[in-house]
Design a protein that fits this description.
18-stranded antiparallel barrel, 18 strands, globular
């Protein structure tokens, strides 16, 4: 019963999950174009079945106010099985003139609404050269509207680096929730502790003219515990660890053709007093992209994945068909269709449908 519950909660009934995450990634050039732009809209829509849709929305707005003060708004929203995230972030940033004066920057930010009621505010300071080269240290106070004596605090390091040889985006955070005491008749009966860390990296090298390696990585870990008093006996603990990453290489086969080789991997581990859940996923993504016309590319590919879910193993194979449209240098639209290739092959044409994705990226 617990195993079936986990399948429904974590999306593990979808044996194509890792392949979906891989072929629904925007090209790394488009990802950095959005990270570097001042204004942009980015969306991803995936159709897995009528009950489960994967949707991502990202919005950026940059508005000069006066002097060197900038107003920023960012929206991050994702709906995907157990992920239900919506975050609105408002920021006032002081930035120096590019290539003039000391490259220091300061910011104040507020998120009045985000996932799980984790409202937060904070401040940051750091180095600012431009939108492509900057580094910040942020101090964040969470759940500011809750009646707590102490509030969870996060320390974040994030930034971008751009050069002729490489692009890098990184974000590292560590959250510490002060010890929470539980009282009964004005006497302490127990206390709880919580901490979390996370790391997000996107790295893309352009070392050789025709070979460009890169890495996408997203890692989170959280630990919580409850200790009863006065015996000081541990009665509950919970640990969650999740890694989703893809190592890739892009090669230029000809003037109009490129080949993408991706090695996606997913690791998830949940352990508490009532269950232990483990999921390991390894995959392979091969995509061939050919320019048909000035604004239209064709993508053909093959995907394979191997999964180990609580010692239960399986593998999946499918083909990929895609079209990519580029309008000037501002707008990118991509369509991806998975095609069933596992034997025995389906008898009906509709059964070859193996998930569909539509991606949109507009920067201005």
């Amino acid at each position: 019963m617990i195993f079936l519950f986990l399948l429904s909660l974590l999306g593990d009934d979808n044996t194509l999950y890792l392949m979906d995450r891989s072929f629904s990634l925007l090209p790394v050039e488009e990802e950095f174009r959005f990270l570097y732009c001042k204004n942009g809209v980015q969306t991803t829509h995936g159709s897995r079945n009528p009950e489960n849709l994967h949707e991502i929305y990202r919005v950026k707005i940059w508005m000069p106010l006066f002097s060197k003060i900038i107003f920023e708004y960012n929206l991050e929203k994702e709906d995907d099985y157990y992920i239900k995230k919506e975050e609105h972030l408002f920021k006032l940033r002081w930035v120096p003139e590019e290539n003039a004066g000391i490259p220091a920057s300061f910011s104040l930010f507020l998120s009045p609404e985000s996932s799980k009621s984790n409202r937060y505010f904070g401040m940051g300071f750091g180095y600012w050269e431009n939108t492509k080269n900057n580094h910040f240290l942020n101090i964040v106070i969470h759940e500011f509207d809750q009646h707590f004596t102490d509030h969870p605090i996060s320390v974040e390091l994030q930034g971008c680096v751009n050069s002729n040889q490489a692009d890098l985006y990184y974000k590292y955070y560590k959250t510490i929730k002060p010890e929470e005491k539980f009282l009964e008749n004005n006497e302490e009966v127990g206390h709880a502790e919580y901490d979390a860390i996370g790391l997000k990296n996107i790295l893309y090298y352009r070392i050789l003219p025709k070979i460009s390696p890169g890495l996408r990585l997203n890692y989170t870990k959280s630990d919580s515990s409850y200790v009863s008093m006065p015996e000081d006996t541990l009665v509950y603990s919970s640990n969650t660890e999740n890694l989703l990453t893809e190592l890739f290489i892009k090669t230029k086969a000809s003037e109009k053709s490129t080949i993408y080789i991706g090695l996606p991997m997913n690791w998830k581990h949940i352990k508490n007093d009532s269950l232990e859940y483990k999921r390991k996923w390894l995959g392979l993504t091969l995509l061939y992209n050919h320019i048909l016309f000035t604004n239209l590319d064709l993508t053909l590919g093959l995907q394979k994945s191997w999964r180990n879910l609580n010692e239960q193993k399986n593998s999946e194979t499918r083909a990929v068909l895609g079209l990519n449209l580029r309008f000037n240098e501002e707008t990118y639209i991509a369509f991806r269709q998975g095609i069933e290739l596992d034997f025995p092959l389906p008898d009906k044409l509709n059964d070859y449908n193996n998930h569909t994705y539509l991606m949109f990226n507009h920067c201005f």
